Structure formats: structure tokens, C-alpha cells
Amino acid sequence: MRFLGIDPGTRSFDLCCFEDDVDNVVLDVSIPSEDVAKDPYGIFEVIKLANADFIVGPSGYGLEFKHISKFADRDVALTTLDKIDDVDIPVLKGLRRLLWLMKEANLNAYSIPGVIQLPTIPLHRKLNKIDMGTADKTCVAALAIWDQAREYGISYSDVDLICVEVGFGYNAAIAVENGKVIDGIGGTIFPGPGYLTLSLMDGELAYLLGSFSKLKLFQGGAVWIASGNIIDPIDFSMKIDLDERFRLAWNAMLEGILKAVSMELTVLSRKPREIIVTGRLSRVNRLFEDIRIAISRKFNLNTRRP
Fold first, then answer.
1. If one looks up domain 2-112 in CATH, what number appears?
2. Residue 225: which of 191, 194, 256 has the closest Cα?
3. How many CA atoms lie within 13 A of 269 on its CB side?
4. Among 45, 109, 188, 200, fewest CB within 10 Å belongs to which?
């Protein structure tokens, strides 16, 4: 059987399809989110040509497990959580248009939950929150659980870890104990800037800004602090020893990750086996090494990529 997963990321829509076994990848492609927003038919054709038997559809902020044929306007709205009269954000516009195309084609696709919708998280940790990690963060947590079980030859019920997702847009930290997700910190509650996004916003700042577009939530991150323009993360990492603004932004992003790990350690009843780092920016060697060294010094924990 063929299984296809679709991740609607801030920078790109990523598609991965494997047949029978996760090591047998038959499709691995990224399409810029702006291109999907302008012409969703391109990625739609790639999805159809994959000829997958089962599709994990692009679920945005997350929905209950539901077949795409049962999607209504409300379901699509819940995946993007933006207002009708707001500025179109490429990833959200592309997501909406692609979901309707997939429904019309009657593809065997399902939505998946975001972190906040997982029943393994106690209710008191969900109060006053919307985004504890989008649906793709649920997926990376599942990957981390599977990977640790395979790495150490243990059962899923013995898995203890914190998964740190370092994406192009948003970051997240997800606590796993006994193989279950018990908390998540993501989106605009993450305690430090992401690469592209400001993440945690001071309520007083929101008040002074007054009415603002959701686009603001996709700005204000490390790259904006350092340069005011979007540049490649590898190019960014090469400037931090040469430019004070880049070093300032880098340190803010790195410290935010450490704070998130510290917060998740408080909900675990024992020390996790390790920290697993995922996401587009985990492939930036300088950032991964800085995270690994800092976590080892602060928490005496091992850090690795899956």
C-alpha cells in the first residue's frame, strides 16, 4: 500500500509518500507555499500522480480524524483560523484551495488532530489556548515516539522524550511520557522567536497594536529582527559571528528553545531519555549544534535528530 502525507508549511508544502515500509520512499517533494496559493492545481496533480491508497491530508491547526468527503465550510475554516476579510497568507490560502480540490476529487484523505485535540493531554493544560502545536507537530511527535522505540529497542509505552520542532515559521516543544503526548508548546505561546515568526506575543503589545492582520503573526521572528528581509537560514547562520544584530536574533531564538524545554520538563514526572530535534532548521548544522550543546549544559540531556 502507498501512504502519502502532506505538510502545509509556512515556507513550503512538503509531500512524502512511501510504499509498504517507511524506508521505501517513492515521493519526496517540496513546493513553495506561494506557488500553491497562486496555483493549487500543480500540487494537486502531484498528489493524484502519487496514486496513494491512504492520504494524511493537510490539516493546518488540526481537526478530529475525519474523511475529507465529510468536510464542510466549518472544517476548512478550522484548519486555517483566519478571518474572511483578512489579508491572504500564502500557506493558508493554498491550504483552503487544495482541501476543496481534494474533496471534489473524492480522494481517500483524512484530517488529523493538532496537539491541543489529543485526549492524552489533561484539560487544565489546554485552558486559554488554541495552538499547542499544529497537526504537523502531532506528526513529528509520533515520528519521535516511533524513532525512540526503534533506536533503543523498547516498547512505545517506555518512550519518554521532549520533541523540539524547529521550523521555518513556528517552533514547538512536545512532552511525551510513557509513549503519550502530555503537553505541547507551539505557535504564539512558544517562549521565544521562531525563524520567521515572533511566536509569543506580549498581551500589552497586542493591545497597543490594536486591530492587526494575522500576517503580523507570521512576522517578527529572528530573520526579521536581524535583517528585515527573509534570507536562507544557512546564510543567516554564517552571519552570526560577523553581525551583532544576527547574533542578537540567534541568541533570542536559541534561548526560546531552551525555555520551552525547561517548561516541558516541569510537566514530566521523571527525566526524559533524550531530546529529539526535528524540523527544517534542524538541518542547519550550526543551529543544531548550538541547541545540542546548550541542552547538554543546562539540563544534562542528550539531543539528537531522528
1. 3.30.420
2. 194
3. 4
4. 45
